[in-house]
Amino acid sequence: MAGGSLLAPSLANRQINYKGRTTIPVLLACIAAASGGLIFGYDIGISGGVIAMDDFLIKFFPTVYVRKHAAHENNYCKYDNQGLQAFTSSLYLAALFASFGASYVTSNKGRRPTMLIGGLSFLVGAALNAAAENLAMLIIGRMMLGVGSVPVYLSEMAPPKLRGGLNIMFQQAVNFGILCANLINYGTANLQPWGWRLSLGLAAVPASLLTLAAIFLSDTPNSLIERGHLEQGKSVLQKIRGTPDVEAEFQDLVEASRVASTIKDPFLSIFRRKNRPQLTMAVLIPYFQQVTGINVITFYAPVLFQSIGFHSNASLYSAVITGLMLIIGTGISIFTVDKFGRRVLFLHGGILMFIGQVVTGLVLAFEFKGNEELSRGFAVVILVVTCVYVVSFAWSWGPLGWLVPSEVFALETRSAGQCITVAVNMLFTFAVAQSFLSMFCHFRFGIFLFFAGWVVVMTLFVHFFLPETKKVPIEEMQQEWSKHWYWRRFAQEQENQDDSKP
User: In angstroms, rounded to a whole number, what is the distance separating the alpha carbons of residues 89 and 86?
Assistant: First the structure.
């Protein structure tokens, strides 16, 4: 019998008896998580506007500056530079390796130390970027921003009934960070010659909030119980729920910790045949999330809009508009994900994203010659379909690309599954960030058709291979795999093996 099913009766019997309310410690945890999401979003959005600033290019990438302003230069290739791409992508390469270290620290030292390390790392990274005098300082600073990470602190502090919404709210904080970055870049672009330093240095503001939160907030009950501090864990649980009557939830946490401690090698378990469906989701969903092409917009929006003929200010406020679309789309997801389900949002989002990418590619193919500006009318068309594309991503593959993988794993593979999900996401985020400007130069308008092709593949994958996870308890997901036309061959094989045991 799987470890997750050992826990299921306890949850089924006691979860309805959980007591408590939303308390000040939970609200403070929300602020801490929002700070972490704000930093991550800010770091995603800030680089695209900065590398479009002339003062930044003159100091670090003079050859790109010359190409940018050269008459009749091929607009598709003006920003094709490996060092420029490394400035953006280095954050995600560092995050890839840091995710493994963060997992160890979180499990053995608690959630707060990971938050503190993350906050301090963000502060150092912001300082290095703002004071940078050479490319090495820039890239090291970006890597320090990647080392910082926000652990599962919020989900463990929040009441169970609020966890789903708060999970997507964290994504909303990321989107707000992207919007803030685009607004700040718009404001600092004319502060010559140091506007780019201010843009990069302002990441220290949310980093300070995260660091202070890590110092003053308590660790989570889950973490304390995991490490054997049962009484302290119960005391913290009573504090954050605002009631001494927490026995039902406390016993579930103790039971979950006990079952988890019996799992000797979750990474070995996840590669067993019975877990093939979950492993497939852990790899393909984050991979598909990146080959939607969304990070073309979030990383390089100002550069992209400048390349296709927008003037500097127009490209920056166009990036602000797309940042706003991310917030609107995620807001739609928050209010619809539990009403319509995950599959509906995935499928509708995929269709509209496909249309947006194809229209962009076709407009560039027929109306943009590469060494001339796009006409005003077609520039507006590009901006509109980009907004449609971004909104569609933000209600579908944006938040659900993180939410669905967290819902499909049994207890014995949950930690390994989440680790694989994060690692795959960071790996391909790095790949897209490091290669896009070069791909844009060589593929030209075809890059949008390339991403559109992947959107077709991933939408078909959801249609045929992803079961609905809406309102399905994690402990019952194995039954959903057993009903699925394809995955049941793996799940039912395990059930038959279990039935044959005495």
Answer: 5
